[in-house]
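Practice record 12: protein with adenosine-5'-triphosphate.
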Amino acid sequence: MDELVSLCARRGFIFPSSEIYGGINGFWDYGPLGVELKNNLKAFWWQRVVRERDDVEGLDSTVIAHPRTWEASGHVEHFSDPMVDCRTCKRRFRADHVDVPCPEAPKQRSVAECDLTEARNFNLMLRTFIGASEDAASTAFLRAETCQSIFTDFKRVREAARQKIPFGIAQIGKAFRNEINPRNFTFRSREFEQAELEFFVHPSERERWFEYWLEQRVGFHRELGFGDDRLRVRPHEPDELAHYAKAAADVEFLFPFGWQEIEGVHDRGDWDLSRHTEYSGKDLAVTDEQTKERFVPMVVETSVGIDRTALALLCNAYQEEALEGGDTRTVLRLHPAVAPIKAAVLPLSKKLAEPVRRIAADLRRHWNVFYDDAGNIGRRYRRQDEAGTPLCVTYDFESEDDGQVTVRERDGMQQERIALDGLEAYLRERLEARP
Ligand code: ATP
């Protein structure tokens, strides 16, 4: 994990926010490679969940919603974690996370043996004020999950898109939680992104759709390259379920710090739409056109953390590989769909810069392509291996005569001579093939 964190900072994937001021706990910035990785992941999710289906609509709602939203959702009252303080080291911990070494005396004891106060509930919603006064009436919350606006916008979106049950509304966006102990790099942050789908179904079909979406979502993570040894589904025990939920399962990934949730799939019943009906006074029930039955749809939710999945992708991809001759290389074996740079184009010598810049400009109409003419070719390949670039295209003095380039593949390091005419098609086949 330490090596990955250091690679992420050095290569500009992810590093602390406000680093020159010493950072701010639980907040992370994504640099040039990180923002590409994250955008690719979001685009991939959007493609599979929204674009490829005619029963899911997209939404982009505000971070701040009417405060009644959060009363209706139960967050104002219940969205809290139990918190304890240590009287010796003065630090604050989640009462259900005390199985960690005490920062004061890490070798001797875990926090559980510290001089802890009684647990108190701590609300995780971040607050702000709207308008000029800072009183209770102007208090608003930064959303703790993206889905609540999907429920409050449900009627508008359904009517505008002329959708009938079953159908879903999806959104990707920032969420904020004042986590007591942000930790494990970006795994538990205070500002993060979620990609959520709320799928609205007839009450008689909730089980079927829950199973369907769970399978779809596991398929998505497999597509990203997570193997069975690092991916599992953990159904919730009955005592873990929210009181309104009929079923829930976590999709878990094996991080270097253990099995952890990256996505939740939940049968939320009619809790959300019923509560928003109650609090807004607006009827959110629907009528079945054929049977004329009036009902409140049930909701199956899939909620994945973009940052957690990006971290899982990096953990899964990271490898230090021994090469022949005692050499080693660090390589990120990222799926081409999420790799920040799809191909690097490299002139063997700076004298060949001009034609290679033209090739780069051509390819950039389709992909994020990196041009690099600095240093020896072996070192340039290594830099791309570390960035997770699937293919390197090298132009040498022979290319001038035979119109061919060498394409080097990241994982197996095989090299192939390809005609420049066919380069775009060759890259497309390797970068965009569906597994
Ligand atoms: P946890 O138990 O880890 O706090 P949760 O069960 O509260 O998570 P959900 O409310 O189901 O999480 O959120 C759905 C997804 O959002 C999670 O699977 C995770 O990927 C992501 N997520 C939640 N909290 C955080 C966080 N603090 N930092 C990064 N991602 C988060």
